[in-house]
Design a protein that fits this description.
With 333 residues, the chain is of the alpha+beta class. 23% of the residues lie in helices and 8% in strands. It is built from six helices and seven strands, in the order ββαααααβββββα. It has helices at residues 30-33, 43-48, 78-128, 164-167, 195-199, 317-324, and strands spanning 8-9, 15-16, 209-212, 244-248, 258-259, 278-283, 288-292.
Length: 333
Amino acid sequence: MKPPTHSQRGDNNQILCVTECAPPRAQQSPQSKLAGNGEQPSLWRALLWPGTATLRMVKPRPHCGEDVNRPGLGAFTFVELLVVVAVLALGAILLVPAMARTQLDSRSARCLNNHGQLARAWLMYASDNNDKLATSYASVSSSQPSWAPGLLDWDLTPDNTNTVLLTDPRYSILATYFGKDARLFKCPADQYVSGIQRTRGWKERIRSISQNVYAGNGSSGFDPGYALVRKLTGLVNPKPAETWISIDEHGDSINDGIFFAPYSTGWIDLPAHYHDGGAGVAFADGHTEMHRWQGSVLKFPAPLSMFISVPPVTNDPDILWLRFRTPRQPGVN
């Protein structure tokens, strides 16, 4: 007669193990409990040593003499569930700053990429035009194309959204050198629009980047200490690797596509600091950097503060940094 292979229930409602019941608890080692013999491993062990156990919500095999109707068998305790919730909450708290930093770094990288592509277009234009630098007029005219024509403001002026000004060679002399991609003129961290622009459904304006007015064949500046350089070979004070050609401009300052370097005691146009207090900058040798401001630029924390002018300052580190990297007259430090 074949021996029975199933459990039978006695009169006292207990499991009577015949052949395949699990060994008594006293005979089981901790290793055997984690080896998959039907005993559910401890949640504490799974949290502290993840590689030693796999949690499975399965009904355990009965032990000899064990009542299968006993409540709580194979379930997590309330305390263990609270531990899981606490661990998940702590992980979320730790991940949020890291994710924010990742997003910031991603925007900074894209911003520098935009500056870099525009700098290469600027250099290719000079190479194709006998070292002549790209013009930087403020006006919009097909008879006088410029680096980045158009005038931005916080109103509903069409230039705020007209990407044709940046991609059509009739207006933008660099358009054929950067694949006519208007997004290169926009810092990804600059998503500011005014209230009236937002009511019209605008998400952003088309430009965040401006060109050094002293490094181009166009408008002249206001400070006689600077030198207006019209050819690449004219960049001698400072050298191309130290001469900035494009910069993120503050949203309340940007209008035309050119940036006037500051006086020794104050700003004419104001740089932006969309990247944790920094701005993307490109140089005449083609390299880029994210410069962190340390002085007066940080007094205007965000656009829509209606920037007019910064009060006079002395020995401002931000002004000194930009003046040193702007073309200057021979002998001017």
